[in-house]
Specification:
Layout: E1 3-8, H1 12-23, E2 33-38, H2 42-52, E3 55-56, H3 60-65, E4 70-73, H4 80-89, E5 94-97, H5 104-116, E6 121-124, H6 131-141, E7 148-156, H7 163-166, H8 172-188, E8 192-200, H9 205-209, E9 215-222, E10 227-233, E11 241-248, E12 252-255, H10 281-284, H11 286-300, H12 310-329, E13 333-334, E14 345-346
Parallel strand pairs: 1-2, 1-4, 2-3, 4-5, 5-6, 7-10
Antiparallel strand pairs: 7-11, 8-9, 8-13, 9-10, 11-12, 13-14
Length: 350
Amino acid sequence: MSLRIGLIGAGRIGAMHAANLAALRTPEGEPAVRLSITDAVPDQAAAVAARTGASTRPTLRALLDAGVEGLVIATGTATHPELIRAGLEAGLPVFCEKPVALSVAEALPLLEEIERGQGVVQIGHQRRFDPGYVRARQMYTAGELGRLHVVRAVTADMTPPPVEFLATSGGLFRDCSVHDVDVLRWITGREVVEVYARGSNTGDPRIGEVGDVDTALAVLSLDDGTLATVSATRYNGAGHDVRLELQGSKGSVAVGLDDHLAMRSAEPGADFPAGPPHTTFHERFAEAYRREMAAFVRVVRGEIPSPCTARDAVAASRVADAAQLSLETGAAVRVEPLGAGAWPAPAGGR
């Protein structure tokens, strides 16, 4: 039987989620989801509904009253807490795009409510569903890499988003590198205990004027002594480049090293990669986004627990906050365990 899923937010990412949900099929080949959509711009909701065979509802209240069994939130970050609460109050499993809230301070009370009420929430860190990241995690947990000594994560956008977006995004670490932090924690099973970050602006000066940087690098110390680097840039003309390298005492593995790699070798005779580079994150993670929505359907059916909890997402945001603080102060910043009641603080010594 088809599940009734409600979607709020029919912008770019909401439209993609709608298409992925509509494409899901039962073992018998029937649609796995009956989708209802609402958006503050009714024409936008109607356009997405027309492409996906969904119905529309004028308001969130009408959407919830339609008897949906799960709620997907694809709206602006500022609306996430109230919409998550609305879904949980209706007794629904909730999927919400990252982050949980505009700040960790705002997210913590909501996290407490979710866990006290045993609410089911999945946050949209889609890299957990990318086949390459999944395989790398399997290899590490199986012991194939041995003890990790260095982890390198890269996220490089081909072109920057509008400056108007960057003015409210919270900064490069919170908007972009938080994905690297989440997947680093997920693969290694370790916590970040200290962050030291640097950034620069060599592109559009308006990015600096709104308080952001266009390129940044952070050195992360994990609780077992492993060192990791997380780098990001808004300007990577070769294409959209997202990679992860795990180097261990027994072996090494790289994620993103395929024929769409946005890089060329300078070695004579080397013709790898052969394919065109990705240009957007939608393209790079198309399969991950499909698997993410399929997983949420299983969460709604009660078949699996949330594969990315609100606690997971807040923990990653906490590290991103520490990186941002380090960027602003020039000092290394300690990251206290989530729930310890301490905020990131300068570590001193640098």
